[in-house]
Structure formats: C-alpha cells, structure tokens
Design a protein that fits this description.
The chain is built from five helices and ten strands; from the N terminus they run αααααββββββββββ. The chain is an alpha+beta fold and 197 residues long.
Length: 197
C-alpha cells in the first residue's frame, strides 16, 4: 500500500527531531545555522507544517546532510536491499506541486540515493542553502519532458534521455519550461568531508 503524504510528513517530522537530537542542537542553533525560523522548525517537528523543498534543503545542509537523508531511514544491518514501488515514500512540495519519490531501499547501507521527481509544467524548485557540507555529487537523467537546470550562473537545457553530472557546491534550481510534466531521476552521493573529487 502506497504511503500517503500524511505518513511521509510524520516520518519527516520524526526524522528531523531525531537528527537534531543526535547532534545535540537546540531549535535556536538549528534556526541560526539554517536560516529557517525556530517557530517553523518547531512546527515541522510537530507535524504542524508542510515544509517546502527549499526549507527542507536548508535544514538538511545545516545538519550536514543531503536532502535525501531527511526522507531516509538510518542504516540497519538487517535492512532489505529491495524497495517495492508501493513502499517508496512519495512527497509533494506544497509550494510547487513537485512529486518526490524516494527509490532507494530504506535503511539499506549505500553510497548513494536514488530519487524520482515529477515536476509540473512551469514549476521551479530552487535550493540555496546557507552552506553545503558535505559536498554533493549528483547525476540527473531526464526520463520524459524538458528540464532547465541552473547551478550558480550556469544554465543547461535538458530533454528526454539527457544526463547531467554535477557537484552541488552552489545554489541550484530545477525548472520545467514545457507544457507537460517532466520526469527525471536523481542519483545523489554525499562526499565524505576532506575527500577529493
């Protein structure tokens, strides 16, 4: 049975609380590091707000994690290497309507995460965290439609079948300039601190 948005929001709330607790960060400290208000973080952690993708990315960056880690379960020794489609968490960004499906098996140790995204026509999702540690390596493969990607001052137009590799070390944005939904796959690898490209 596919997970509902409410299920995913509840998991996000619990995961954010747990990650902040593991790092012994107060709400104030996380707010200062992320640029997200203390009251908004508190609401998210209590399941009282549906955060946007941009807000979640700022929180993840302040915690030293990729955005995918907020949707993931901590690694478990006995985790299944298989994630059935019905068990893959699906989340909708309340600001843009973009759908994000976490494809990677939950809790299974892996060097990267896979995410499927459906971006509505005309939608734009921007990520501009105050800091980014660890550095992220991403590859974006367009499965259907058109995608405009910006990384810093560089913009690339992608169409079906195109694949773009990048190091996410600057603000970046995904935009659908077309009249049909764009569907793409993102592979994310968080490079350990101090590692070389």
């Amino acid at each position: 049975m596919e997970q509902t948005a409410t299920d995913v929001d509840a998991r996000l709330a619990a995961r954010l609380r747990a990650l902040r607790g593991e790092r012994r960060l107060t709400l104030e400290a996380l707010a200062e590091a992320s640029g997200v208000s203390r009251s908004m973080i508190s609401l998210i952690e209590r399941g009282g707000a549906s955060p946007t993708a941009g807000v979640l990315d700022r929180l993840a960056a302040a915690l030293g994690l990729p955005l995918a880690a907020l949707f993931a379960e901590p690694p478990r020794a006995n985790a299944s290497p298989l994630a059935r489609r019905a068990d893959q968490p699906l989340w909708r960004d309340p600001a843009t309507g973009y759908l994000r499906r976490a494809l990677s098996p939950p809790g299974h140790p892996s060097a990267f995460d896979l995410v499927e995204v459906v971006l509505p026509p005309g939608a734009r999702v921007a990520y501009d965290p105050p800091q980014r540690s660890p550095v992220l390596d991403q590859q974006v493969w367009v499965l259907a439609g058109r995608l405009r990607h910006s990384l810093g001052e560089e913009t690339v137009e992608l169409t079906e079948g195109d694949c773009l590799a990048m190091r996410v070390d600057r603000p970046n944005a995904f935009e659908n300039p077309g009249e049909e939904p764009t569907r793409y796959l993102v592979a994310v690898h968080a490079r350990p601190p101090g590692s070389r490209p």
